[in-house]
Amino acid sequence: MIQTQTYRVRGMHCASCAGVIEKSLKKIDGVETVEVNIGTEKAKISFDESKTNAEQFSKVIAPLGYTLVVSEAAPSAIAIEKQSEEKKWAELATAAPIALVFIALFVLLQKLGIVNLITTSDVSYGTAFMIGIVASLSTCMAVVGGLVLSMSATFAKEGDRVRPQVLFHLGRLVSFFILGGVIGALGSAFTLNTVGTFVLGLLVAVVMLLLGINLLDLFPWAKRFQPAMPKFLARHALGVSEFTHWLTPLLVGVATFFLPCGFTQAMQLYSLSTGSFLSGALTMSSFALGTLPVLALIGFSSFSVKNSPKAGIFFKTAGLIVILFAMFNLINSLVVIGLISPVFNF
């Protein structure tokens, strides 16, 4: 008998998480349809109760770092919810000083002139690289890590472990360079004036601010406002990894440019504002290079930060740092339009 149930899902941070959960649950025998809403943190599942159940759903998504709440009204669920909230705030208390140390180091390097990650007029390639590092360690990149893992497992069965990894990263780096350049060139066609540059800079700041808030995992309402790619496009991009042709890794690498990662979208918006093929290409390439080390590690050793006991502290630290980048971008946008004087001219 087919029945439809709605469950609360904890641990989601962006549309990528929703896509991963939907794809995983649909593979269970007996599951008819799955609809995951990141804004409400709910999963609506239609399934044949004679073949599967909520316990099976929970077992499938648990290794991915998500928790299915079967009954929120149960006393045990209420107690767990309270403990979860207390744990989240305790993690924030631990994450805050770590983030402050990072910020202090960041400012110190600026003042010493060792690096030049932030300017008053744009996002430098160093900034894009650092954002790539944060993105590669966040759950917003879980979908890319999932693609790498599924692809690696498929080819490993045939004894081919190295070539798929090389092709994937080659496809990713080349596509980010070329498509980033295309976005930058399109920006030049619009001949952005000061107001246009301000608006795009403001959009980048808002997207990153929402990403940072969502990484804190303290304010569920913020997930409703996070921009995301239309689901039908995201499903097609996720489905690429299911093919077994030797060119699949290359196609998967290219497809990651279109996956619903807010960090990627923020960098794409900035690339558009550059109005230059080379600037757009180098910005997106720097971002992709920042994600390279962790994605390579995932492919070769199944590394995953989100499954670590300290994952909550890491994500909250990352969230605070992303919020810092968002504030830098917001201030830079205000400088461009002349509302305030330059702040970060170290």
Account of the 3D structure:
The protein is α+β, with helices and mostly antiparallel strands and 346 residues long. It has two domains: 2-73, Alpha-Beta Plaits (2-Layer Sandwich), CATH 3.30.70.100; 89-336, no CATH class. It is built from twelve helices and four strands. The chain has helices at 15-26, 54-61, 75-112, 125-137, 142-156, 162-190, 194-216, 231-239, 248-255, 262-274, 277-301, 311-336; strands at 2-10, 31-37, 42-48, 67-69. A four-stranded antiparallel sheet has the order 2-3-1-4.
What's the number of structural domains? 2
Structural class: alpha+beta
Give the amount of beta strand, in percent.
5-15%
The largest β sheet comes out as:
4 strands, antiparallel
Radius of gyration: 21 Å
Sheet with the most strands: spatial strand order: 2-3-1-4
Terminal CA distance reads 67 Å
Give the overall shape, derived from the CA principal axes.
Answer: globular
The number of distinct β-strands equals 4
Order of helical and strand elements? EHEEHEHHHHHHHHHH
Q: Mean of residue pLDDT?
A: 75
